[in-house]
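Please produce the structure of this protein holding adenosine monophosphate.
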Amino acid sequence: MLLFKQVPQLQKYLDTLRENNRNIGFVPTMGALHDGHLSLIRLSKQGSDFTLCSIFVNPTQFNEASDLDKYPRTIEKDVEMLIGAGCDALFLPDVNEMYPGGSQQAETYSFGDLETVMEGEHRPGHFAGVGQVIKRFLDIVNPDQMYMGQKDFQQFAIVGDLLRQLESKTELVMGETRREPDGLAMSSRNMRLTPEERNIAPLIHQTLTAAKGKVKTHSPEQIKQEAIRQLDIPEFTLDYFEIADATTLQPITSFENTKSAVACTAVFLGKVRLIDNILLY
Ligand code: AMP
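Below is the modeled complex.
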């Protein structure tokens, strides 16, 4: 696997690939890799000629300094996992490489109603940071395909909107959420859970699955209230549970005029904040 830390070297190499008509698949990550990330690498290897992964813990998308400080960093293991998955190259920039004039200078984007709900509402500035870093990556890499996970459903919608605003030719491809055998969505943050918290964490996915089972018989509000009751245990502090239109991400009160709906939730287990979602139909 090739390793690039600097933009000019990476771009020179990618230009050579393009001259040879090879298309470039890109998987942006913040490291502490798990099989969810590797499933995106595998998807890229199927859909693109060359697979580039990036590892960059983007400070501008963290609304809590302590969350940034505690974000797990396991770079040696990450490199081994990427090699094992057959990833072609890793881009490992530092903050100065990503934001040469400081992050204040980087362009910012607005995402209208997409960023006023759920993660956007509960993590102020988060999606502005995501927009910033993805725009910078697009400028550097200009991938033919970019692979991102359903796990971060709202982020996927935001990045789709960014690509539209930029009139970008990059195709955005969704990878399904990889889960532990007990249903817990894989996440870099799971390694911060205590054994007790880890035991109880699958309740998040169980609640989402139960919600999906009620679509034909219950209203969105009834499903939401039952889910909130189910998640109301001492170990959890609920941030939100929403039933939303899967395209606009706006909360819905009826399934009647909604082509596709999604249930999304964020829960604190102690200090660790976990998110998950399920497409209802
Ligand atoms: P992160 O390192 O958390 O920024 O995630 C990098 C990419 O991996 C994003 O596109 C995520 O949506 C995706 N991802 C994270 N967890 C999972 C998972 N459990 N299954 C599939 N994709 C995931």
